[in-house]
Amino acid sequence: MNLVLTGISTALVVGLASAIVNADRREVGQVIFSPPVVSAPLLGLVLGNSLIGLQVGAVFGLLWIGKQGCGTRKAPNDSLAAMACVGASVISGASAAAVGASMLLSVPLARIGGMLDLRRERKNIDLGEIVYNAEGSEWNGILAKTLARGVFRSAVEGLIFGTIATLMIGTIVSLVCKFVPPSLNQSFKDIPALLPACAAGCALAAMPGKSPAVVFIIAALCLALYSFLWGFV
Amino acid sequence: MDLDLSKKDLSKMAIRQMLILSAFNPREMQAIGFAYAVLPALKRACRNKNKGEIEQKRKKCLDEAVKRHLEPFNTHPYLGAALVGAVSRLEMENRPQEAVRLKASASGPLGGIGDQVIWKVVLPAIALVTAAMESSGIWWSFLIFLTAFSLSQLGIRTWLTVKSFEFGKDVISRLAGLDLKKKRWILGLAAGIAGGIMAWNIDTGMEDESMGHVTTMTLATASFVAVRVGISPTLVFYLACTAIIAVPWLIGSG
Fold first, then answer.
1. How does residue B60 score in pLDDT terms, banded at 50, 70 and 90?
2. B218 within domain boundaries
3. Which residues of B touch A68 (CB under 8 A)?
4. How far apart are the first and last CA of chain B?
5. Which of B77, B109, B141 is the last residue of a domain?
6. What is the pLDDT of residue A192?
7. Longest CA pairwise span in chain A (Å)
8. Alpha carbon B248 to its chain's center
């Protein structure tokens, strides 16, 4: 009973954080707290496990970096996915295996979040109609109210999505960690440690030209060689 | 003609500019947010233009001015701050048609520059360094992103609003003249720092540290190649997870 209550309260905290992050992503300020490299570690700190936040932030912050807000191309909502992943990891025991399994299940959430963003934008057409039909009105009030409604929609979507996704993925991951064979469970532990490299590769591929990737590998090789030799000495 | 906006009005415009996407929709796009941002200047312009006139005439002037800026409009949300300032100045100079033309002609180039410089260079560069530090377990690394990107963008947008009001269209022509190719070195620098941090500090949990380095670099290179040949990052993520889970499991059961 106590575990269930803790899970629900954690999910609510994640929901609140998701509301702020979702509104920040587009509606207010645009990209202040919302990138996973910021929001996930902050949520991790709030939930009392900064390491999970760092691991999730490093992966989700880079994976779709090349698809960020260019024109009409719609980006996956990496912020909501990262929030749910941190929350689910904490609910399901905060072990390395739980973080790995949560990451596996949270990635599709970014796509769903992106679709919700699109749906909300289409729904916002009614806000345009309200403003267009206003005649001789108090413009300050009507424009402010319209924009506030846009922010409210986004925050409510974040709240609901964050809470439900955290509870669902947290429950599934708890069951997975309990019932899968220990050897497979062991393999989940490697996911959070190794995936930042995969995400870094994806981010480098999204950058123009080949030179960033070449510089990345040369720097990594030099430092690895240096640490190897240093270890020898 | 009185072209002075009070500091309060300028601050209002700078703050309101942050809400430019709040009611974004496929039809008007950023128009509602833009109209709200320039409203203090529109009010002042109508007051100046209709000094001594009856209230109804002022209201009509404001109605027309707001509707002028409710036409579909889209640009980069950060660089749009320059348009907020410049358009406000033109409106206060009683050159409304020029203001509309400026919006129409500058929104595309500013959007393109914003995408190429901010979304493609500055954001990925800072995120890459921050993520590399996070993967090394440095808990305060998110502060790097917060100060280098988030707070800087807020500062730059405020500065752009104020300066473009002061100098008008000049700020926009300077922005449009930015040499994009020269900004690419930022990516190289960030990639070098991130690669170094990852190789130096990353804890793969493997007993053999050099094996950990080899695995990390192999994963990064394979993911880079996969995304470059056209595989989506999501699929690359799942392929990497499958490899991470399956390889040790197969070796263990073998």
1. confident
2. yes
3. 119, 123
4. 86
5. B109
6. 87
7. 80
8. 42
B76 is a domain residue = yes
Nearest to B67 by CA among A135, A124, A121: A135
DSSP state of A136: S
Task: Give residue B220's domain range.
Answer: 204-254
Render pLDDT for B97-121 as a digit per residue (tens, 0 to 9): 999 999 998 888 888 888 888 888 8
Instruction: Report the candidate in B80, B85, B50 with the shortest Cα–Cα distance to residue B64.
Output: B50
Question: Which of B75, B93, B109 delimits the end of a domain?
Answer: B109
Nearest chain A residue (CA) to B134 = A54
The domains of chain A are located at 2-232
What is the token pair recorded at A144?
């402010």
Looking at the structure of chain B, the number of domains it has is: 2
Report CB contact under 8 Å: B188, A211. yes
Percent composition of chain B: helix, strand, coil (DSSP 3-state, to 5) = 80, 0, 20
In which band, very low, low, confident or very high, does the pLDDT at B72 lie, cut at 50, 70 and 90?
A: very high
B162 within a domain of the structure (yes/no): no
Q: Is B73 helix (H, G, I), strand (E, B) or coil?
A: strand
Task: Say which of B24, B237, B244 has its CB closest to residue A121.
Answer: B24
